[in-house]
Design goal:
The chain is mainly alpha-helical. It has six helices and no strands. Helix 1 runs antiparallel to helix 2 and helix 5 packs antiparallel against helix 6. The radius of gyration is 56 Å and the shape is flat.
C-alpha cells in the first residue's frame, strides 16, 4: 500500500500485492483527502501566530479530525468483515472435523485390531510378571511384556537368588556390626572410667592450688586496695581543683566571647546600613540623571508607573468590595494616563 503520505509493504504482513490492493482501496479515499490538505497545512504552520492564523489552524484541525474519525469507522467495518471471514473458514474446518473424526477412529480400531490385542496381551503379561518381581526389587525392569519365557525364567530365578544372597549378606553384616558394637561399648566404658578417675585427681589438685592462689591474691588485693585508695584521694583533690579552674576560665571566656560577638555584629550592621544608604543614594542619583535626560513622554510615564496603591488587610466584606473597586479604578486610571502619554 503506497500514497504520498503513507507507505506500507504488504509482504511484511504475508499478503500478495493483489490481496493488499483490496484493503488499500478501502482506505485510499481518506488518504487522498489528507493529501489534498497537505499544501494548506504547510501554509498554516508557517504563518505568524495571530487571531487569523489561530482561526485557520482550528478549521484545518477539524478537517483532519473528520478524516481521522472517518478512517477509524472504515477500519472498524473492514476489520469486522475479515474477522467474520476467518470465523466462517473455521466453521468449515470444524464441520469437516466433526464429520470425519468419529469415522477415522472406528476405521483405525479395525485396522489395528490384532495389534491392539497383542498390546493388551503384553500389558497383561507385564503386570503379572512385575507383581511377582516387585517383592524382590524396587525398579521395574525394561521390556517385561516382550521377554520370552526362557529369558523371563532366567531373570525371575536370578532375581530371587540375588535377593536371598543379599538378605543373607545383610544378616551376616548385622551380626558382625553387633559384635563390633559390643567391643566398642566395652572399650568406651573402660576409657570413660579411666578418664573419670584422672579427672577426679586433677580436680583435687586444682582445688588445693586454687585455695593457695586465693590466699596469695587476697594479700595482693589488700595492698593494691590501700595504694589505690590513696591514689584516688589525691586524684579527687586534683580533679576538684581543676574543675574550679575550668569553671572560672570558661566564665571569663564566655564573657569575652559575648562582648566580641556584640562588637562584631554592631560593626556588621553599621557597615550594611552604610553600604545600603550609599547604594540607594547612587541608584537614586542614577535614576534622577536618567530621568532628567529622558524625553517628556518618558518622564511622565515614569511618574505614572511609580504611582502605587498601598496594600493592607481588611476584615469586612463591604470594605473588601470597596477596596477592590478602588484598586480597579486606580489601575484603569494608570492605564488611561499611560495611553494619554502616547499622544506625545
Amino acid at each position: 500500500m503506497e500514497t504520498n503520505l503513507v507507505k506500507i509493504n504488504p509482504e511484511e504482513f504475508g499478503l500478495q500485492a493483489n490481496e493488499a490492493a483490496q484493503v488499500e482501496a478501502v482506505f485510499k479515499p481518506m488518504l487522498e483527502k489528507m493529501s489534498e490538505l497537505e499544501n494548506e497545512f504547510n501554509e498554516v504552520v508557517n504563518l505568524p501566530i495571530e487571531p487569523t492564523t489561530i482561526k485557520l489552524a482550528k478549521e484545518l484541525r477539524l478537517k483532519y479530525v473528520k478524516i481521522r474519525t472517518a478512517t477509524a469507522d472504515i477500519h472498524k467495518k473492514a476489520k469486522a468483515y475479515y474477522l467474520a471471514g476467518g470465523r466462517f473458514v473455521d466453521g468449515w474446518k470444524n464441520a469437516q472435523l466433526m464429520a470425519s473424526q468419529g469415522k477415522e477412529e472406528k476405521l483405525e480400531a479395525i485396522e489395528k485390531h490384532f495389534e491392539n490385542l497383542e498390546k493388551e496381551r503384553k500389558a497383561k503379561l507385564k503386570a503379572e510378571r512385575w507383581e511377582l518381581l516387585q517383592k524382590y526389587m524396587e525398579v521395574e525392569p525394561f521390556g517385561l511384556g516382550e521377554m520370552t519365557e526362557q529369558v523371563w525364567s532366567a531373570l525371575y530365578n536370578g532375581t530371587i537368588e540375588a535377593y536371598n544372597a543379599k538378605i543373607e549378606a545383610e544378616k551376616k553384616a548385622e551380626q558382625e556390626r553387633i559384635e563390633a558394637e559390643k567391643k566398642r561399648l566395652a572399650e568406651e566404658k573402660r576409657l570413660r572410667e579411666e578418664n573419670e578417675r584422672l579427672e577426679k585427681e586433677a580436680k583435687e589438685r586444682e582445688r588445693l592450688a586454687e585455695i593457695e592462689r586465693k590466699r596469695q591474691q587476697a594479700e595482693i588485693d589488700k595492698k593494691n586496695a590501700e595504694i589505690e585508695a590513696q591514689k584516688n584521694k589525691q586524684q579527687e583533690e586534683l580533679r576538684k581543683q581543676q574543675e574550679e579552674a575550668d569553671k572560672e576560665r570558661k566564665r571569663l571566656e564566655a564573657i569575652a566571647l559575648k562582648e566580641q560577638r556584640k562588637k562584631i555584629e554592631l560593626e556588621r550592621q553599621l557597615k550594611e546600613k552604610e553600604l545600603a544608604e550609599k547604594k540607594a543614594k547612587l541608584e537614586a542619583e542614577k535614576q534622577a540623571k536618567k530621568l532628567a535626560a529622558a524625553p517628556d513622554k518618558k518622564k511622565i510615564q515614569t511618574y505614572i508607573n511609580d504611582l502605587d496603591f498601598p496594600k493592607f488587610e481588611l476584615t469586612s466584606i463591604e470594605a473588601i468590595n470597596i477596596d477592590s473597586d478602588i484598586r480597579a479604578k486606580f489601575e484603569a486610571f494608570k492605564k488611561w494616563a499611560l495611553n494619554e502619554t502616547e499622544k506625545l
